[in-house]
């Protein structure tokens, strides 16, 4: 191994939510692609499994290992901007936040993104991170090429023209096919979005959901359990001028209310669950409408400092409203006490083998519980509804599904597992989570 490679031994690792932990035999931080290749070869020779981990924002054990944990954060930064092709190539360990800021300085932007940007680009894409969009899909769907170190230490370059069968799968590869070293994304000239946030009743937003989806480039809403109240958000391209949130009003909405007060409210709810419905009614009625115009990442993303555990399922978009109404009925009739809003988003069909939107227009329902609050009863009941509607769970969020389920849920599941057998027959990149969701 190269002498510059930093390695530590017996150091415990924990994910962002704190619900997954592991103690790898060693943690390696390669500073070059060559060092990463050597780390994979050495691990395989030593009989160790290998997993790469970003910032640990997955709620599953997708990155957990008792073998070698690779941290790609030193493989970061923009490597190339091709303005003619409309692409940017970045190291796998680049944080989405750093990428977005660097692109903005260059007058460029991703077309769509999720609602947080703390993750590494490789971690976010490998688990299928997405935002909401009528026509624009997940971050992984914006990948135009990638480089991947396979189990024998080979570096593969993958695109629609080069190793296309690997490219089809590795954009959302769960770390099962190899370790990504760089990603090339499609980008476009920087543009403005106008965000319109507005409270709306549950019955109104669900009755008119198809119209809201059709009329807006990016539509999403949050329903507050124990109430009939929602908050809607419409993001659409704008000619400007820019009219960002004021420093004070933005801080009140995004920091004080969404993080500070929300933290206090959840802590109270965890201590006194009976208070949650009353708090929810007050909190959801306190929302006010606001409109602002800014560059994309400042509209799409927001800080998330309140820790939680999350389950999210992707349903056929035509099934979304029925499933959400069933979830509301379940909560209304149960003794569950839910202090976190339920998030609803959409994505168009894409062509990535194990994308939650693979081959079908998709609606997403995400349920959350405050960190430290028992979530199994709520998530189990929600999962029963979601699976009855043909749901596919987000790869990085809590679920109980296995390979047998996914073989039915994904028409191209066998294509992915056959590719895995070819690229990693000895399961150098395996772990317990992958054994459950992909099979042996």
Describe this structure in words.
This protein has 440 residues and is an alpha+beta fold. It has 14 helices and 21 strands. Strand 7 and strand 8 form a beta hairpin. Helix 10 runs antiparallel to helix 11 and helix 12 (403-409) crosses helix 14 (432-438). The longest helix is centred in the middle third of the chain and has 25 residues, at 247-271.
Secondary structure: elements and pairs:
Elements: E1 6-9, E2 13-14, E3 21-22, E4 26-29, H1 33-46, E5 50-52, E6 68-70, E7 78-82, E8 87-91, H2 96-105, E9 108-109, H3 121-126, E10 143-149, E11 155-159, H4 164-170, E12 179-186, E13 188-189, E14 192-201, H5 202-207, H6 209-215, E15 218-223, E16 229-238, H7 247-271, H8 276-285, E17 290-294, H9 296-300, E18 308-316, H10 320-333, E19 342-347, E20 362-370, H11 376-388, E21 392-393, H12 403-409, H13 413-423, H14 432-438
Parallel strand pairs: 4-6, 5-6
Antiparallel strand pairs: 1-4, 2-3, 7-8, 8-12, 9-13, 10-11, 10-12, 14-16, 14-17, 15-16, 15-19, 18-20, 18-21, 19-20
Helix pairs in contact: 10-11, 12-14
